[in-house]
Write a structure and sequence with these properties.
Strand 1 and strand 2 form a beta hairpin. The chain has 8 helices and 10 strands. It is of the alpha+beta class. The strands form 3 sheets. A 5-stranded antiparallel beta sheet has the order 1-2-3-5-4, with helices on one face. The protein folds into 2 domains: about 70 residues, Phosphorylase Kinase, domain 1 (2-Layer Sandwich), CATH 3.30.200.20; about 160 residues, Transferase(Phosphotransferase), domain 1 (Orthogonal Bundle). The longest helix has 22 residues. It is about 40% helix and about 15% strand.
Length: about 240
């Protein structure tokens, strides 16, 4: 019998590794009455599973294997790789990885998917082979990318537009969509970018500006790039105002 190993215990859920499977189990909250806690955990479990399945059609995410609404569990593929919160600073190909982060975010946002917790702790880089761009190109077939132009007129790197053409190897995965949701507004997309910027400042303070610049370079493929950037400025101004007062 395959042994279970608790690899992370958070406020909302326990992560359990069982062979090649990761089990995310939402735990009951003692401070919530059962009549509220049960349907809330059930709803959040269903929502995350659906979001993972939707996102999995356009970017690399763990594959959902089973959803158990009774136990509030999602069984998914265990991704073995480098968690970027621990490895990004030392990566020689950090620029390529950060551009890939930006492009993944852009593809999610263009599908109106908001991750909700964009930090490098929720991104895994799997070494080996060629950079897999098929998740962004082969599965979306965006006319904007085929034409190698973004909506703001910038060129998209041709190396990213042709499957398996990058020189350095690896595959980027986004994980943990527990705070995510669909039908995102421009405001939500700007907040998503603000979150990754804040996370970089906190965790990768020595090179965060270079990292974020590369992420924005990748994000330029988004059809709403200009609008989201304008809203991001407003989001950051509100943040600075709150800090001042």
């Amino acid at each position: 019998m395959t042994q279970e190993e608790i690899i992370q215990q958070g406020a909302e859920a326990i992560l359990i590794k069982k062979g090649s499977t990761l089990i995310k189990r939402r735990v009951a909250k003692g401070y919530r009455i059962k009549e509220i806690d049960e349907p809330l955990r059930k709803r959040r479990t269903k929502r995350e599973a659906k979001l993972l399945e939707k996102a999995g059609k356009i970017i690399n995410v763990p594959k959902v294997l089973k959803v158990d609404e009774k136990t509030k569990e999602i069984d998914m593929e265990f991704i073995s790789g480098i968690k970027l919160s621990e490895g990004l600073d030392e990566m020689k190909n950090w620029r390529e990885v950060c551009v890939a982060i930006g492009r993944n975010i852009a593809v999610l946002h263009d599908a109106d998917i908001i991750h909700g917790d964009l930090t490098t702790s929720n991104m895994i880089w799997v070494e080996g082979g060629k950079l897999d761009s098929s998740s962004l190109i082969g599965r979306t077939r965006s006319a904007r990318l085929i034409n190698r132009k973004t909506d703001n007129g910038d060129d998209v790197d041709s190396s990213f537009c042709e499957n398996n053409s990058a020189e350095s190897g690896g595959k980027l995965y986004f994980i943990d969509f527990g705070l995510g949701f669909g039908n995102g507004r421009v405001e939500d997309k700007a907040v998503d970018l603000h979150l990754i910027k804040q996370a970089l400042e906190a965790k990768h303070f020595k090179k965060w500006e270079e990292f974020f610049s590369a992420i924005l370079k990748g994000y330029k493929i988004s059809k709403g790039f200009d609008e989201v950037m304008k809203r991001l400025e407003k989001v950051e101004k509100r943040g600075r105002y709150k800090e001042k007062y």
